[in-house]
Amino acid sequence: MSPALHSMISFLQTWWVQLASGVLIVAVVPLIAGYVVLVERKLMADMQARLGPMRVGPHGLLQPIADALKLLIKEDIIPDDADKVIFWLAPVVSMTAALVSMGAVAFGPWFQVAKDINIGILFILGVSSLGLFGIVLGGWASNSHYALIGALRSTAQLVSYETAAGLAIISGLLLAGTLQIRSIVDAQQHYGVWFIFLAPVAFFIYLVASIAETNRAPFDLPEAESELVAGYMTEYSGFRWALYFLGEYANMIVVAAVATTLFLGGWLRPFPNVRWLNWLDLLPALFTAAVGVYCVYRAGKQPVRVQTLFMWAVAALCFLVALILAATLLVPLLQAARPGLLGAFWFMLKVGGYIYVFMWLRFTLPRYRFDQLMHLGWYLLIPLAIVNVFSVGMAMMLESEFGWNRWLALVVTMLFTLLAAAFLLHLNDKRTAAASSAAAETSDSYAG
Amino acid sequence: MEGLLAVFSQAFILQCNGLRFMADESKPPQSPDSAKPESTGASVTPPEAPKSPTAPASPAAPKPAAPPPKPPVVLQVPLDNDLTRRYRERFGAAILDALEDRKQPYLVIDAAQLAEIARYSRDEEKFDLLVDYTAVDWPRRERRFDLVAILYSFPHNTRLRLKIPLAANEEAASLVSVWPVANWLEREIFDMFGIRFIGHPDLKRILLPEEWQGHPLRKDYDILKQDDAWVRENLGIESGQ
Amino acid sequence: MHDETTQKQNTLLGADELVINMGPQHPSTHGVLRVKLKLDGERVIASECVIGYLHRGVEKIAENRTYQQFAPYVDRMDYVAAVSNGLGYCEAVEKLLNAEAPPRARVIRTILTELQRIASHLLWLGTHALDIGALTPLFYCMREREEILKIFEKYCGARLTTHAFRIGGLQYESYDTFEKDVERFCKDFERRIQEYVDLLTGNSIWIGRTRNVGVLSTEDCIALGASGPVLRASGLAWDVRKATPYAAYDQYKFEIPVGTKGDTYDRYIVRMEEMRQSRLICLQAIENIPAGPILGKVGKVLKPPPGEIHHCIESPKGILGYYIVSDGTTQPYRVRIRPPSFINLQAFDKMARGHLVADVVAIIGTLDIVLGEVDR
After folding, report:
1. Residue C22: which of A220, A228, A436 has the nearest Cβ?
2. Are A203 and A215 within one domain?
3. Contacting residues for A340 by C-beta, under 8 A, at least 6 apart
């Protein structure tokens, strides 16, 4: 055998799991993102007293497939004077950054493409930041004055809020002491409590910053339909637009995964160390089985036979998953699989909960104007995040150097942070009052 | 919306066809003397029915005598209250007439003093709101247009109408400096009637496109001018309408 | 989706001014309205509204229809609040005829007009909130509006362009469960208004987007002729229903909500409170609808004596005025409609100057214009 072929085979033998996971991510994540879009539409409809997609598939379950097909067969329009290469490249960059950063996300102790990468969180943050290039290049390549302005605005917003997000993450990293994802979750198990209870201010800062990072309402002015400046996505249609759109939802999943890992206990069940709550381990199987039962119930109410069969298929899938999850508990041989499978379930449940909060805020709150948005980021969130980092570090030092009780230290420093937050809000109110009294006279404080 | 526009465009065409027939019919002027009970727009059937071949054998009954014409109803009464006296004192002959119609007072004033009367109305008589400003076309009159300004006073809670007769090509003073709301209102009067206003900052058409020919609310407006011009320009033929 | 053209012009000072165009088709101009904005960077320094895209020549049509034939046309101007338009027109012609609608007709007219006011304000609230980014109030408002439109449909067969009234009174008797329907709606509505208040009134983002945006003082309002909630938000408690009562408004107790600063937030509060007051009027009215005829003695052929009349009502948008000139024939000689939206829109330039481009959408929304009325 030739040495080249030999080395290729040995490469594959070592890395086949990672390669397969990579292919799986690229294949599956867009589909998952599509279904997250469907969930958003159904949730939006539910909160708005209506039904949402109902026609395509039972309860609209095939809507994402239909939308993807439609976008694929749409005419590919490229503006005449646009830079063809960059126009093609921009959405690809955006999507790629989101997918690559998903490679380092651990969906449970077993499922991580970049297995046990020691710079886990940093890798995710860094690579997802590269998605900004996709936005700027898209705006520039559209050859439209207003698309460029919209792109620059989006970028400015993303950069500002990434700073705040990064500072908020640092508190979690201080508590964990490491960037490696598995160790962070193990640290939360060791502490016995999720980091959200140890550093709640950091969690809320990260929540707000991550909404702004993914261009979601109330921070979606650059891409809102009713605004004058069109936004970087205007000239994109068909599948290119779909790439941007799916990149945005993939980013949402990544950001939710980071928050879950750092603050919500990763793949740990609630109260991981409390023995008498071990029956909580049954919840994943029960939950999935309940979803299956609901699908069977709804199957009976479908108007068309093919939809009934589809619902039965979904129900069967749910029961299968429930069976697997229960088997890890009940069958002693499969005990070893317990942390992996159950952990994946809890992780996805928490990610789902975080994304639910994103969607809930989107449907409830109006939009910030761009200058108000930037002010919130720079004058409110970043100073608060800095104070928070300082206070968490202070708490850890009080515990280790001065022997304070951990909880006491954390509570004291959190009170200090809240005081700082109140002060910042007070300054904010004063500023808005001053600005309103001089509203029409001041010149614009930032370039378009 | 499309349905509404279709209905309207059809209605417009129908009405314009109606206009061409009506251009010859006489429209009674405002003077109450000519308000005859029979002057409807419908054609009046002649008293003798045309003999049909299957006329009944019995002779036609004699036509009943027409009822005597009712006296015309005149609802405009001269007005002489404090307000009109104050105006007459101040402007004398410029107040051509002061009448009250169905309990609503109005003054007929001279166009030459329009700006002063307006300013006086706003400042002294406290008519601070110009509710409406429009025109009416009486083509058979010597001064064919009637500019009508409707004023309202917040302090006194009273309304007053000012009517300004204008000749066909006469220009009126603009009221924009007195009541800024007159800006668009005067533009609309210009658009619909062709009355120009001296001192208006930007007198151009407001509701119709810039290149529209004619002024629609005039009674002798020819809608088909537009169609003729367009067909001549774009198709090079004479419109058959 | 967006229709924009840009031209850069160098002024004498060498600064670049931008003229951008919010085209006739735009998601937020609520109809075919074109707004030309002159910007300095991000701030509006001048603006011009170009209207006329929906001009249908209603006033000219009026001269060729009989008085009764013209009544349905009037609905199509402010198509969001058709019943108010019909009320103004029918009352104006009744004044011209020196006739009066019987008491029962007046009360039912009042109830329907107040329901229409609620419906119009609900549509305004939903679309205004949507422009500012709140996605959900629109659907809640539509749900409430649906109930009102059902009542209209049961009454006269139409939901939007209702032609509900006739000259001299009403054509249709109120249907059997009319009082019950209105009462059920009004009882339910208080809770719904509270939903909107919870979503928006105290919301700091909403306040941030609407406070001090598009300020119009009372002097400016009167000078520019702005009326309705725009005038009341600036501080002047004036309402045609109280100043010169018409229909049955003098029989009912209601308050005039007033703002303080005349900004977008105050206009929002005034319209919310107006909905509450309309609800109270409806509740008072249905308690005691007098029995009697619904159509006064006006005859089939209407030939008002020559003369003219001017009549104003308070439509949801402002003062709706009808100036009708009769020459003694069955067709009016001149009908002039004073559209509140047309005159309120004139104030847009004054309100928009000095604000950011993102506020322009909020200002157009807060004026509550309906292009059918602006252009007629």
Report:
1. A228
2. yes
3. A108, A109, A110, A111
**Residue A427's pLDDT is what?**
86
- Please give the single-letter amino acid code of residue B22: M
A45 with A108, same domain: the answer is yes
Q: Which residues of chain C have a CB within 8 Å of the CB of B186?
A: none
Distance from the A448 Cα atom to the nearest Cα atom in chain C, whole angstroms: 6
Read off the pLDDT of residues B151-200 as tens digits, 9 standing for 90 and up.
999 998 999 999 999 998 889 999 999 999 999 999 999 999 999 999 99
Are A324 and A394 in the same domain?
Answer: no
Ranges A402-406, B59-63, C245-249: which has the least confidence: B59-63
Task: Give the bridge partners for C321, in sequence order.
Answer: C312, C338
Phi first, then psi, for residue A52 (nearest 5°) are 80, -170
Q: Which domains does chain C have, with CATH numbers?
A: 58-375 (1.10.645.10)
Which B residues, 130 through 169, put their C-beta within 8 Å of a C-beta on chain C? 130-132, 134, 136-137, 148, 150, 154, 157, 159, 161
A169 in the same domain as A237? yes
A367: which chain C residues are within 8 Å (Cβ-Cβ)? Answer: 132-134, 205, 209
Q: Is residue A39 part of a domain?
A: yes
Partners of residue C72 in chain B, C-beta under 8 Å? none
Looking at residue C258, its pLDDT comes to 94
Q: Which residue has the tokens 């490249």?
A: A89
Q: What range defines the domain where residue A155 resides?
A: 16-268+362-427
Question: Can you give the pLDDT at residue A113?
Answer: 78
Last residue of a domain, one of A304, A336, A359: A359
- Contact check, Cβ <8 Å, A230/C1: yes
CA distance A300 to chain C (A): 29
In a domain, A307, yes or no: yes
Q: What are the tens digits of pLDDT across the range B17-62?
A: 444 444 333 444 444 433 343 333 333 334 444 444 444 444 445 5
- A440 domain residue, yes or no: no
- pLDDT on residue A199: 87
* Band of residue A235 on the pLDDT scale cut at 50, 70, 90: confident
Query: What does the pLDDT look like over A21-59, one tens digit per residue?
Result: 788 888 888 888 999 999 999 999 999 989 889 888 878
Q: How would residue A378 be classed by pLDDT, with cut points 50, 70 and 90? A: very high
Question: Residue C57 gets which letter from DSSP?
Answer: -
Q: Is residue A68 one of the residues assigned to a domain?
A: yes
Q: Give the minimum alpha-carbon distance from C137 to chain B in angstroms, rounded to a whole number.
A: 25
CB atoms B15 and C244 under 8 Å: no
Residues A348 and A211 in one domain: no
Lowest-confidence segment of A425-434, C109-118, C330-339 by average pLDDT: A425-434
Closest CB to C205: pick one of A50, A365, A371: A365
Q: Give the separation between CA A360 and CA A365, rounded to whole angstroms.
A: 9
**Hey, are the CB atoms on B12 and C55 less than 8 Å from each other?**
no
Boundary-marking domain end, from A359, A387, A416: A359
Q: Which residue has the tokens 């009944």?
A: B56
CB contact under 8 A, C206 and A224: no
Q: Are residues A283 and A237 in the same domain?
A: no
Measured between beta carbons, the chain C residues lying within 8 angstroms of A365 are: 133-134, 203, 205
Q: What integer pLDDT is reported at residue A437 of this predicted model?
A: 57
Buried b or exposed e, range A60-77, using 16+ CB within 10 angstroms: bbbbbeebbeebeeeeee
- Which one-letter amino acid corresponds to residue A61? L
Percent of chain B residues topping a pLDDT of 90: 30
Residue A404 shares a structural domain with residue A343: no
By CB atoms closer than 10 A (0-12, 13-18, 19+), residue C316 is buried
Residues in chain C closer than 8 A to B28 (CB atoms): 306, 327-329
Distance, C-alpha B210 to centroid of its chain: 23
The per-residue pLDDT for range C129-155, each reduced to its tens digit, is 988 888 899 999 999 999 999 999 999
Tally of structural domains, chain A: 2
Burial string for C109-129 (b: 16+ CB within 10 Å, else e) reads bbbbbbbbbbbbbbbbbbbbb
Nearest to C41 among A366, A372, A448 (CB): A448
Query: C212 at the A interface (CB within 8 A)?
Result: yes
ipTM over 0.85: yes
Shared domain for A152 and A192, answered yes or no, is yes
